[in-house]
Amino acid sequence: MGNLRIIGLGPTDASGLTAEAIAAIEDDSENFLRTEHHDAVEYFRSHAIPYTCYDHLYDTMEDFDSVYRAIAEDLIERSKTCKISYFVPGHPLVAEKTVVYLLEHDPHIDIVDGLSFIEPVLRGVKKDPVEGLRFIDGDNFTDLDIDVHVDMLMTQVYNRRVASDVKLVLSDFYGDEHEVYILNHAGHPKKETILRRPLYMLDRYDDYGFETTVYVPKSNRAVATGDVMRLVRRLRGKDGCPWDREQSHESMKANLIEEAYEAAYAISAGDSFRLEEELGDVLFQVIFHSELAKEEGTFSYETVVENLVEKMVHRHPHVFGEGHRDWEALKAEETGNKTLSEKLEHLHGLPALLRGQKMLRKAEDSMDSFFASYVNGGEERYAVNCFVF
Fold first, then answer.
1. Helix 249-269 vs helix 272-296: angle between axes, to the nearest 10 degrees?
2. Which terminal CB of the chain, N or C, has fewer other CB atoms within 10 Å?
3. Closest CA to 85 of 19, 24, 165
């Protein structure tokens, strides 16, 4: 794999090429370009330097990832017999998936730096990324990728369809009036355009292309779990609320139950607006108790989430690739509870009626194994007899 090196073309025209990149273009290696739709490629043409590009793959494959993998595989194969220089827009290690796949194959490939598109974008919007900057692929992201409290730089917003999809997701987090920047050919001395407009107008722009970037400044909207954690810490802090500072798990226990019942009532009433509010109250209780535990040094919200995810993955083997298994058996495996009476221990905190319903349900679930248990005798036989007969 020593026959392959990767060179950055910079973000704009030939004026952005480094001396090392120019030397690579002019040496005796075979030149391959991910795309020739980049202004710096004019240097190859003006100096009659031959090259091969992979643009034809974009029209023959189903998605970008297939294209990128095909490019990487072809370069790997070709490099077995000849010396290859592979050129990509910007910097090879910034938003370049083909390079990711090549480095997975051989992490020792030589990289020739090039100015990335990030610096011209930051200059265009006059922003300092020191407080956080998140990079997002506009053609392949979900709401889970968004953090409204740091600036976001979105690539691959190459047409109005993608822009429309992006707008719909971002509007839920930032609001329709939140202003964003649309940058085209950032850094190019002749082609650069920078527009600032509200989110609801994001898809009302006709010049989207593969050199378009959307810059989303951070927001102060409280839409993340971390915002609730900051709120609780403020309430329990030195200059916070005296009542909140005095609370404990025990004193807040009734509140947790009350909020859960109010959320359940909203569901029964079919009141989605009230349910939205009540679920917020339930979330506040979960985070409040987690923060109390963190202060005590027993557990934290992070460990609550970690344990929850591990448990749900374990209980859904049919989803996560381990085949079908019985839900109750999986729970018993986690807790170590084998007998019916052991399985009922965690129900003691429920109200009497609900506890009775669950006890009867679990007892009925045990009927299939009753006769085997009866032969073996012992505690499980006694428990089954008590709750079934």
1. 160
2. C
3. 24
User: In whole angstroms, what is the distance from residue 199 CA to residue 167 CA?
Assistant: 6
Distance CA 7, CA 43 (A): 14
Instruction: Indicate the SS3 state at residue 187.
Output: coil
Q: What's the pLDDT tens digit per position in 100-113?
A: 999 999 999 999 99
CA atoms in the 13 A half-sphere facing the CB of 196 = 7
φ, ψ at 230 (rounded to 5°) = -65, -40
Tokens describing residue 374: 């009866």
Order of strands across the sheet that contains 84-88: 52-53, 30-33, 84-88, 4-8, 110-112
d(CA 200, CA 176): 5
Give me the residues paired with residue 216 across strands.
152
C-alpha dist (Å) from residue 217 to 87, 139, 161, 301: 31, 19, 22, 28
pTM of the model: 0.76
- Interval 54-67: pLDDT, tens: 999 998 998 889 99
pLDDT confidence bin for 326, thresholds 50/70/90: low
Determine the Cα–Cα distance for residues 364 and 343; give it in Å rounded to an integer. Answer: 13
Tell me the three state secondary structure of residue 90: strand
Question: What tokens were used for 219?
Answer: 């927001």
* Closest alpha carbon to 134 in 142, 146, 124, 123: 146
- Calpha distance 303→97 (Å, rounded): 33
- CA dist., res. 366 & res. 251, Å (int): 37
Give the pLDDT confidence score for residue 19 in this predicted structure. Answer: 95
Q: Looking at residue 365, what is its pLDDT?
A: 61
Q: How far apart are CA 203 and CA 305, in angstroms?
A: 37
Q: How many CB atoms lie within 10 A of CB 120?
A: 22
CA-only gyration radius of the chain, Å: 30
